[in-house]
Design a protein that fits this description.
single chain, 110 residues, mainly beta, five-stranded antiparallel sheet, three-stranded antiparallel sheet, elongated
Length: 110
């Protein structure tokens, strides 16, 4: 099965309840950065980056949040540059902000 857009992953939960107090989570090594928007990306800007061994760790400002994305050392973006954090919908996690508990994704037939 191919990747689906971010809006599809938790479609059922969004219809059945109010998740305004939800946190989106992902592993920094499961995301990528690009200058172009995709169906599964979040817009942001480079806040800072650091080189660690053969990798670069970018800190990206997405809305009011700072998120980290680990890339190959050759990836090049400048401070304050607009970028898109590309996320694999299968690698996302939603958490209830109040309880900290994970919200399980809807699965057809489950």
């Amino acid at each position: 099965e191919g990747s689906r857009g971010l809006g599809d992953v938790y479609k059922r939960q969004m219809k059945e309840g109010s998740y305004s107090g939800t946190l989106l989570g992902f592993r920094h090594f499961k995301a990528t950065l690009s200058p172009e928007e995709t169906e599964s990306s979040l817009p942001g800007e480079v806040y800072v980056y650091e080189i660690v061994e053969d990798k670069k760790i970018f800190t990206i400002r997405v809305g009011k949040s700072l998120v980290k994305v680990t890339t190959d050392r050759e990836v090049s973006f400048e401070i304050n540059e607009r970028v898109f954090v590309n996320l694999d919908p299968k690698s996302l996690y939603l958490f209830d902000e109040e309880t900290g508990k994970r919200i399980e994704p809807y699965q057809e037939g489950a």
